[in-house]
Structure formats: C-alpha cells, structure tokens
Fold:
Amino acid sequence: MSKDTDFQQIKKEIREWIKLDYIIPKDIPDIELYMDQVTNFMDAHLYHNKRGEDDKTLTKTMINNYAKNKLLPPPNKKRYGKEHIIILIYIYYLKNVISINDIQKLLYPMTERFFDKAPDSPEERTMSDIYESIYELEKSEYFNIESSTARAEELTEKLFPKEEDEYLHKMALIYLLGYDIYSKKRLIERLIDEMPDPVTPEEQKKSEKEAQKEAKKEAKKQNRKVKKNDKGK
Structure:
C-alpha cells in the first residue's frame, strides 16, 4: 500500500473519530420555545456529541445559571427565541474550551449589539446572519482539522507503530493533539484578554452614581475651602 493510500485510509478513520453533530442554521426554529422544548431540541441535534449515554447536552439548571451569570438574556414570558438558541449553541461549544468568565466577556458585546435588535439599529447584520457565516467557516475548517489530525496520527505511527506498542502510540498521539489544543487555547485566551471588559447597564448606573457622589464630595470640599478663605479675609 502506497503512502498516499495509507494517508487516505488514516483520514477516513479520523473522519469517523472527530465527526460531530452540529445545528444547521435553517433547523433553528423561528418560534419561541419553553425551557423543556429548548433542552429537547439541543439533545436531539447534538446527541452524538455526548461522551457517555448519561451525559447531558443542556439542562434547566445550566440555562438558569447562564441567565444568572449574564451569559443569556432573560426569556420572554418563560419562552426562548431563535437568538436565545444561537447563544446557547455558542456557549455549548465554548464551555469545553474556555472559562465562563471568558465566555461572558466574548459574548456580552454580541447580545448588546445584536440580540433583539431594534428596527433603527445601525447594525446591518442580525444574529442569524452571523451564525450562518460562522457555520460556513466551521464547515470549511472541519477538513483542515481532519488533515492535521491525520498528519499527527501518521507521525505517531512512524515513531511508535501501533502494532508494536499500542499504549505508546496512543500516548504520543494524545500528547500531540493535546499540545495543539493547548496552543490554540492560549491564543484564544490572549485574544479575549485584548478585548475590553464588558460593562453591564447595572454596572454603568453604579459607576455613574459613584461618580456623582464623588462630584458632590468634591463640591462640598471646595465650598468649605471658599468659606474658610472668606473668614480669613
């Protein structure tokens, strides 16, 4: 068997290993869903991504925590719209890579700019437009992941042939893949660190109140100085 044939066979195996369920943009419902319907929708579309049968794709507790941590805008009368689903999909993939704080920092500007966008908004894109574009990017990136993973397997096979020592083969392959993931994770964190910290409306109001208090204190301080100077004349 030629090297090219070997590599194609490896790619075929890799394709099965890294195959993931994903949610096609047109499959996201345009109607509002209750929480049970949201969790059922996510489970139905991402079922094969679970590592074990008992693993949960999304739970009510998760959704409530996301809302509590300002990752997810509140529902409309206990109903979640298409834009809620899109944000939950982003969170689903990101939470396995970065921290909740980093996800909040990354997605807060998204909800501020595009969630439930007003008719007079200057933004030309909608959240659905952005999701469709990212979905197309991910589809093309899949083949790059397939090729790079197959190359890692090929390199590992040269140094630690599976037939000679399966443990060392798997250990070396896992290390190579882990190094790749770690490097990209560090890059993701650096990009997030370069983003400004999000300021919620509540934090903005608090900051404004504190500024007003400081201004009043400074004004009183200046008045006392003026009165003291007047007395000294």
The chain has a mean pLDDT of 84. Strands lie at 33-34, 79-80. The helical segments are 3-17, 35-46, 60-68, 82-94, 100-114, 127-159, 166-193, 201-232. Residues 7 and 154 are 7 Å apart (CA to CA).
